[in-house]
Automatic annotation (TrEMBL):
Molecular function terms, GO-annotated: catalytic activity
Species this chain originates from: Parascedosporium putredinis
Pfam families noted in UniProt: Amidase
InterPro entries: Amidase, Amidase_dom, AS_sf
Protein name: Amidase domain-containing protein
Highest taxon of source: Eukaryota
Amidase domain span: 103-503
Length: 519
């Protein structure tokens, strides 16, 4: 359809001078008067194109609600809440009882909860906020369709933190999520509800998202396994996004084997998300099968080289108790046949600064006009307000910073990749300390304090895209109560595309040592 330089219809709202007004308003530049008529006609033609596109029917994946009907969608009543506000909505969607869709039933018999930033058709989505009315999707995210095809039952959506913008679990407008091991303490975030429900044995698996540690941090604090796959391995289609350069979706479970089974169900290009175009064919990975076959050997990690990332330990913010627990866990690798050596990636220390800048600038572009009431941000948005303020400032004062930051991220990625030529995986503490008491919402500073430094070892791998998994390896005392023991997570990181190796190392450790009895 060509509309360029056609006669401008009487209903076309574009007027002479509109092009000049746009340039002056947004760029502060002027048009050559000799070109004014041409740009007027071109702009009118573009308007006609836009009108034509809006007149066409939309084209989205259609959720199969005959095969997968949604039963009893509801907000949990007060007397049915678990771990505080862990559930956003309850619903029953029964998974496939056969292979009618041609999918392998990797998750037959498993129960799943879905983070409340992932589209589930017919189930209202809060996104952790009360700044606007909940949005009800009309189609399912790819990961939702795939877990149902794999035979899992979905039991509901799990609370996430406000705009997925916190690693605490008290910032969601839907309420505070409690740590299953200690009421009053953080479950981590932003996949807070999912981690609590899995660790608390309410569901077998949670599907979460991770843009700085939002799968791995709550997994570490709650004592479950959380996997951030290689960037693009799992399609992000149908998931509310922060910045496309660091979005990851992945599973949380109580065992590495269940994480592997879930990755088998989720991974592979879906024909929509261009981030996953090179991921490979769905149902082609064999993650769980590789773990089962490898576990039959006496020394399952024979030939594997484990690198202790020095910079992951040698930071003042890493608590001594956490450092000691993870060091003790690493020593066990040699019993499994692995060789262990210390390695250094100095660029790791630049990591905490890198993810914050793209995310702030992205929210300034995508979310700078977040819903407000009479010009004031809603009171429940202190962390998000900070992100928007930062983004506005950085865009104003440092206009070229986004591109520079992305380039620095590639440099850090390449530094890790160089180290991976000599070791198979890197190991380090997932979080610098165990779960802390919930913070307060009454001031921005009070909202931040419990989580300052929490992502010092996680967020960098969102920028570099490396597969990273947290597994529970023991217990350490709470920072404010030496009589209370809380879970400690060890992070296992692999080279790009080496998700199977990360799973192999984690599964071998988990299968040989009981972290729970160390309490």
């Amino acid at each position: 359809m060509s509309v360029f330089f056609n006669e401008i219809g009487p209903d076309n709202p574009v007027k002479k001078g509109d092009a000049e007004a746009l340039l002056e308003k947004h760029l502060g530049v002027e048009l050559d008067p000799k070109e004014s008529v041409d740009y007027y006609e071109l702009l009118a033609a573009v308007h006609d194109c836009a009108e034509h596109l809006l007149s066409l029917p939309d084209y989205q994946p259609v959720s199969d609600q005959q095969r997968y009907p949604r039963e009893n969608v509801h907000r949990p009543a007060e007397d049915s809440k678990v771990f505080g506000a862990a559930w956003a909505h309850k619903v029953l969607i029964r998974g496939a009882q056969d292979t009618g869709n041609g999918a392998a039933r990797h998750l037959a018999g498993k129960s799943v909860c879905i983070k409340d930033c992932i589209a589930v058709a017919g189930v209202p989505q809060f996104y952790g906020s009360d700044a606007f009315d909940p949005w009800t999707p009309v189609t399912d995210a790819t990961v939702v369709t795939r877990v149902l095809d794999a035979g899992a039952d979905i039991l509901g959506t799990a609370t996430c933190e406000h705009f997925c913008n916190s690693t605490a679990s008290f910032t969601s407008a839907q309420g505070t999520v409690e740590n299953p091991h200690a009421t009053g303490y953080s479950a981590g975030g932003s996949t807070s509800g999912g981690a609590a429900l899995v660790a608390g044995k309410i569901t077998d698996i949670a599907i979460g998202t991770d843009q700085g540690g939002s799968i791995r941090v709550p997994s570490a604090l709650c004592g479950c396994v959380g996997m951030k796959p290689t960037y693009g391995l799992v399609p992000f289609t149908g998931i509310t996004s922060g910045d496309a350069i660091d979005d990851h979706a992945g599973p949380l479970a109580r065992s590495v084997l269940d994480v592997a089974k879930c990755l088998d169900a989720l991974a592979g290009y879906d024909g929509i998300d261009d981030r996953s175009v090179g991921a490979g064919k769905h149902n082609s990975f064999g993650f769980a099968e590789a773990l089962v076959s490898n576990s039959e050997t006496a020394k399952p990690l024979s030939g594997i080289k484990v690198g202790i990332l020095a910079e992951g330990f040698n930071q003042d913010i890493i608590h001594q108790d956490v450092r000691a627990v993870v060091r003790a866990a690493i020593e066990k690798f040699e019993e499994l046949g692995a060789t262990v050596e210390e390695v250094s990636v100095p660029e790791h220390l630049d990591g905490p600064a890198v993810p914050r800048t793209p995310r702030s600038l992205s929210h300034r572009v995508r979310g700078g006009s977040a819903p407000v009431d009479h010009g004031i941000f809603p009171a429940t948005l202190p962390l998000y307000k900070n992100t928007v303020i930062n983004g506005l400032y950085l865009a104003d004062k440092f206009p070229g910073l986004y591109g520079r930051t992305v380039n620095i991220g590639r440099r850090i990625r390449d530094a890790y990749e160089k180290v991976f030529t000599g070791v198979d995986v890197l190991v380090l503490p997932t979080t610098p300390f165990v779960a802390r008491r919930h913070g307060m919402r009454d001031s921005p500073r009070a909202s931040f304090e419990p989580t300052i430094g929490m992502t010092t070892n996680t967020a960098v791998f969102n920028v570099t895209g490396h597969p990273a998994m947290s597994i529970p390896v023991g217990w350490a005392p709470a920072t404010d109560d030496a009589t209370l023991s809380l879970p400690v997570g060890m992070q296992i990181v692999g080279a790009l595309g080496q998700d199977k190796k990360v799973l192999q190392v984690g599964h071998a450790w988990e299968s040989s040592f009981d972290w729970v009895e160390k309490r």
